[in-house]
Write a structure and sequence with these properties.
By secondary structure, the protein is an alpha/beta fold. It folds into 2 domains: 116 residues, 3-Layer(aba) Sandwich (Rossmann fold); 29 residues, no CATH class. Strands 3-4-5 form a 3-stranded parallel beta sheet, sandwiched between helices. It has a two-stranded parallel sheet with strand order 1-2. Helix 4 links the parallel strand 3 and strand 4. The longest helix has 12 residues. The protein starts with a strand and ends with a helix.
């Protein structure tokens, strides 16, 4: 199995700073890419067996595509993407033991595309309706003594 890594220039600089860049270049199982565009990243995600990321956007796309995802953070602003909420992602932080365990456990899971309930393409309309009806809702709250 290969690791395909679209590497951010800051990450590349940090790897060089810590003396890890040359070792990474020598590893035949690692394919380094310049940063890729949205469509290229979607294609990589669709073909991946597993995603390791700190990106909330990739957590979301992995959920919709069903690509198992290890989120290299301790928290997320996108909890709907977590397995415990029927998403595809699990938080692993930067704990190497946890990353390793979840990696092997996750590879055994079936791919399960999932579109969360409100990801239906109607968000803009719900926002417009909420804005248009805001004053009406506030009046109703006032009349019911909630304000």
């Amino acid at each position: 199995m290969y690791l395909i890594w679209p590497i951010h220039p800051r990450t590349q600089n940090r790897l060089k700073e810590f003396g890890l860049w040359d070792d990474l270049l020598k590893n035949e199982k690692v394919i380094l890419l310049y940063p890729v565009g949205y469509h290229e990243m979607l294609k990589l995600n669709m073909d991946a067996r597993i995603i390791l990321t700190d990106s909330g956007g990739l957590q979301e796309e992995s959920t919709v595509l069903g690509t198992p995802c290890l989120t290299l953070r301790w928290n997320t602003e996108r909890p709907i993407t977590l397995r415990e909420h029927d998403g595809a992602s699990v938080l692993v932080g930067n704990n190497v033991e946890r990353i390793r365990k979840e990696y092997y456990d996750t590879l055994k899971l079936p791919r399960k595309p999932q579109r969360p309930e409100l990801w239906d393409g109607n968000t803009a309309m719900r926002c417009v309706e909420a804005i248009v009806n805001w004053e009406k809702c506030e009046e109703e709250k006032f009349e019911k003594g909630r304000i």
